[in-house]
C-alpha cells in the first residue's frame, strides 16, 4: 500500500512542500494513535519503539518520495541528436515541480562539490574577444599582418570571469526599429569616432546623446548603389537578385552594414565579415543592428566556409590588396564563389594614378586583369568606381590550355576548411555541387535532386523539418520569465505573449540540416540564424548554405569569433554530450556562451539527463536562471531553458 501511495504521489506530481507537510502531520498522528496495527508492531518492537527508529522511518519515507518524485538522474548517458517535440506547454505543472527541482539541484551540488559564483571581469574586458590579442601575437613572433589574425593558442587566459555590459548598456530595440536605431552605449565606438570618420557621417545622425540613427533610404545612397550593381549584371532592379540566383552575399569589410540592411528586406542573406578592430568595430555595429556578421579576414588563413558557398563576394573599400601575394586573396574569393557568381569591387579613388578617368581605370584594372583571366573570370562591367567580374560556369575552362590557368588543387584537397592556410590552387572544380547559380531554385526549400547532391534523402529532410516545426512552437511558448517561478499561476491568469523580449540574432550551435532555421522561415519569425556545424561532426554546412542560410564551421573547444553581447538566443541540440566525450570543458563552454549572449538573452539546451544535470549545476555559478523541462514521454531527453540576468556592478 505504501508503494501504491508513493506511486500515486509521483504520478500526480504534488509540490515537495505539500508532501513534506503531509508526512509531518501523518507522523504526529502516528505518535498519538493506539490502533490495532500499532499494537501489533509493539509486539515486535516493544511497547515503546525507540525515538531514533521513528526518525529513521521518517527520513527513509522522505528519501523514497524524493527519488520517485524526481524525473532527473545523475547517470550521464550518451546523447540522441533527434529532438523530441512533446514539450510542456502548460506552465502550471512546471511551477509545481519547482521545489522538487530545487531540492535535486541542491543535492547534486552537495554531492559534487560547490563551486563559487564567478565574479565580473574588469571594465577593460567589456568588449573582449578571445584569440585576437595583437600584442600577444606580436610577442609570439607573428608579423606581416599575421598579428591581426586569429591565434587562440596564444591568447588564452587563466582568468575566468563573466564579461560585464558597459555602464550605459540598454536592451536593443525590437526589429525592425533596432535595424535603424541603436543605443550608442552598447558599442565600443564613441560618438567622437563616428563624427570624425568622414563619409559615415552621411549615414549617421545622433538623435540624442544615447542613440544612433541609420538613414539607409534617405542619405547614404545604398539603394542607388544596390540598383547600380543589379543593372551591371543585367537585371532591371535589385529586387530581381533572387530570380537571378543571388541569394547569399559575402560582404567583406561591411562598414556599418547598410548594404546588408537594405537587401535583408528582399530576403537576400548578406554575411558581413571584417577584421578585429580595437575600436569602432564593423562586426559589432552590424550585429547590434540585427544583421548577420562575424570576425574574419584575408591574411594567411581560409575563412571557415566550405567551397562554393556564396553567390556574390562584395568588397566596397575593404582595404584588401587583391593583387598581392600572387593573387592568393582572389583565389580564396574564387573558392568561396559558386559557378556563375559575381565578384563586386568598389575601389577607393585614392588609388587613382593621374587625373583622368582613363588613367584611374588602368591603375585599378591592370594588376587584376592577369589574375582574373587566370581564374577564368569574365569582366562584366564598370561604372564609376565599381567593377564586376563573373566566375565561369564551365569547369572545362580550367583544362582548356589556352591560357596560363591557376593550377588545380590535388584530388581530395577540398576538405572542410577550418582556418586552413591559404593555398595558391583552385578547388571544387569536379564537385557535385558545381551548379551554376542561375540553375538553382530561388526558394530555401531544396528539391529532391539538390538534396541527393548532399547525400540526404527527401523523407529524412522532411521528417527533420517537421520535428523542428513543432519544437519551435513549443520553444516560443517557453521564453517567458514565468518559467522560473516557484509558484503556479492563479486560475484565470493568462500567459504573456511570447517571446517576453526581443529576439533577433539566433545561434543554432549544432545545426545539423538547418531545420530550426527552416522552421523560423516558415513561421515568418523576424530572426536570422547563425547555423554552426561543429568541427568533427558530419559536415552538413554545404547543405545549410545551399538553402541560402547563414552558417559557419566552428570548434566549440575555442571561443566563437564575435564580440560580447551579440546574440539574443543560443540553441544547442545534443552538443553537451559531444563536449563530455571530447577534450572540451563544459564550464568553459558555458562561460563563452555567457560572453556572446546579451543580458536577458535566452539559452535552450536539448540533451539527455546526465549532460543536462551537469549543465544545470554549472549555470547557477554563472548567474543564469535555469529550469529543466521533462518531456513526460518516458524518454531520458530533457530541456534546459535559461535566461541571463542583466547584471551591473
Report on the structure:
The protein is α/β, with parallel strands linked by helices and 649 residues long. Among the domains are: 48 residues, no CATH class; 189 residues, Vaccinia Virus protein VP39 (Rossmann fold, 3-Layer(aba) Sandwich), CATH 3.40.50.150. 33% of the residues lie in helices and 16% in strands. It is built from 21 helices and 17 strands. A seven-stranded mixed sheet has the order 6-5-4-7-8-10-9, sandwiched between helices. β11, α17 and β12 form a beta-alpha-beta unit. α16 crosses α17.
Q: Overall mean pLDDT score? A: 79
Report the count of strand segments: 17
Q: What structural category characterises the helix and strand content?
A: alpha/beta
Strand order in the largest sheet: 6-5-4-7-8-10-9
Protein name: Methyltransferase
GO cellular component, one term: membrane
Subcellular location: Endomembrane system; Membrane
InterPro entries: Put_SAM_MeTrfase, SAM-dependent_MTases_sf
Amino acid at each position: 500500500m505504501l508503494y501504491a501511495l508513493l506511486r500515486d504521489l509521483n504520478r500526480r506530481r504534488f509540490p515537495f512542500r505539500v508532501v513534506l507537510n503531509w508526512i509531518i502531520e501523518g507522523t504526529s498522528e502516528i505518535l498519538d494513535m493506539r490502533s490495532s496495527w500499532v499494537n501489533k508492531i509493539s509486539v515486535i518492537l516493544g511497547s515503546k519503539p525507540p525515538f531514533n527508529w521513528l526518525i529513521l522511518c521518517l527520513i527513509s519515507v522522505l528519501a523514497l518520495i524524493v527519488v520517485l518524485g524526481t524525473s532527473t538522474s545523475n547517470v550521464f548517458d550518451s546523447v540522441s541528436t533527434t529532438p523530441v517535440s512533446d514539450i510542456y506547454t502548460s506552465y502550471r505543472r512546471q511551477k509545481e515541480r519547482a521545489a522538487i527541482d530545487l531540492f535535486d539541484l541542491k543535492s547534486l551540488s552537495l554531492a559534487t562539490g560547490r563551486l563559487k559564483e564567478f565574479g565580473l571581469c574588469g571594465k577593460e574586458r567589456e568588449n573582449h574577444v578571445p584569440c585576437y590579442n595583437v600584442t600577444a601575437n606580436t610577442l609570439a613572433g607573428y608579423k606581416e599582418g599575421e598579428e591581426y589574425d586569429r591565434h587562440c593558442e596564444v591568447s588564452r587566459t587563466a582568468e575566468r570571469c563573466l564579461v560585464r555590459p558597459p555602464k550605459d548598456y540598454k536592451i536593443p530595440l525590437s526589429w525592425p526599429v533596432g535595424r535603424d536605431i541603436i543605443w550608442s552605449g552598447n558599442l565600443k565606438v564613441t560618438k567622437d569616432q563616428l563624427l570624425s570618420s568622414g563619409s559615415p557621417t552621411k549615414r549617421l545622425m545622433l538623435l540624442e546623446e544615447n542613440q544612433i540613427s541609420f538613414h539607409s533610404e534617405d542619405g547614404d545612397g545604398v539603394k542607388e548603389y544596390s540598383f547600380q550593381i543589379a543593372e551591371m549584371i543585367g537585371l532591371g532592379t535589385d529586387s530581381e537578385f533572387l530570380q537571378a540566383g543571388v541569394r547569399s552575399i559575402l560582404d567583406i569589410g561591411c562598414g556599418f552594414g547598410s548594404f546588408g540592411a537594405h537587401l535583408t528586406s528582399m530576403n537576400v542573406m548578406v554575411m558581413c565579415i571584417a577584421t578585429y578592430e580595437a575600436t569602432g568595430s564593423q562586426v559589432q555595429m552590424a550585429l547590434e543592428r540585427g544583421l548577420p556578421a562575424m570576425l574574419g579576414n584575408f591574411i594567411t588563413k581560409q575563412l571557415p566556409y566550405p567551397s562554393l558557398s556564396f553567390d556574390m563576394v562584395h568588397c566596397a573599400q575593404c582595404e584588401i590588396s587583391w593583387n598581392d601575394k600572387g593573387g592568393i586573396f582572389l583565389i580564396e574569393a574564387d573558392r568561396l564563389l559558386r559557378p556563375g557568381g559575381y565578384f563586386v569591387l568598389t575601389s577607393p579613388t585614392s588609388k587613382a594614378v593621374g587625373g583622368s578617368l582613363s588613367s584611374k581605370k588602368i591603375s585599378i584594372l591592370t594588376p587584376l586583369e592577369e589574375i582574373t583571366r587566370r581564374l577564368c573570370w569574365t569582366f562584366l562591367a564598370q561604372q564609376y568606381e565599381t567593377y564586376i567580374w563573373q566566375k565561369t560556369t564551365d569547369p572545362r575552362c580550367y583544362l582548356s590550355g589556352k591560357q596560363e590557368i591557376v593550377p588545380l588543387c590535388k584530388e581530395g584537397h577540398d576538405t572542410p576548411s577550418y582556418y586552413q592556410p591559404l593555398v595558391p590552387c583552385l578547388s571544387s572544380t569536379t564537385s557535385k555541387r558545381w551548379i551554376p547559380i542561375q540553375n538553382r531554385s530561388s526558394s530555401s526549400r531544396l528539391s529532391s535532386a539538390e538534396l541527393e547532391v548532399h547525400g540526404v534523402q527527401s523523407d529524412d529532410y522532411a521528417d527533420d523539418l517537421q520535428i523542428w516545426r513543432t519544437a519551435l512552437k513549443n520553444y516560443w511558448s517557453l521564453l517567458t520569465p514565468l518559467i522560473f517561478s516557484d509558484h503556479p499561476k492563479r486560475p484565470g491568469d493568462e500567459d504573456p505573449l511570447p517571446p517576453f523580449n526581443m529576439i533577433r540574432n539566433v545561434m543554432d550551435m549544432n545545426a545539423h540540416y538547418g531545420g530550426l532555421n527552416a522552421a523560423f522561415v516558415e513561421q515568418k519569425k523576424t530572426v536570422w540564424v547563425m547555423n554552426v556545424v561543429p568541427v568533427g561532426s558530419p559536415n552538413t554546412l554545404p547543405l545549410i548554405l545551399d538553402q541560402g542560410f547563414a552558417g559557419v564551421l566552428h570548434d566549440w573547444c575555442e571561443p566563437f569569433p564575435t564580440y560580447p553581447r551579440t546574440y539574443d538566443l543560443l540553441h544547442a541540440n545534443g552538443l553537451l554530450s559531444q563536449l563530455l566525450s571530447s577534450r572540451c570543458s563544459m564550464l568553459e563552454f558555458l562561460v563563452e556562451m555567457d560572453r556572446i549572449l546579451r543580458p536577458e538573452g535566452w539559452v535552450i539546451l536539448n540533451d539527455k539527463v546526465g549532460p543536462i544535470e551537469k549543465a544545470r549545476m554549472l549555470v547557477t555559478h554563472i548567474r543564469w536562471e535555469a529550469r529543466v523541462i521533462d518531456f513526460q514521454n518516458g524518454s531520458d531527453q530533457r530541456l534546459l531553458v535559461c535566461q541571463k540576468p542583466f547584471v551591473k556592478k
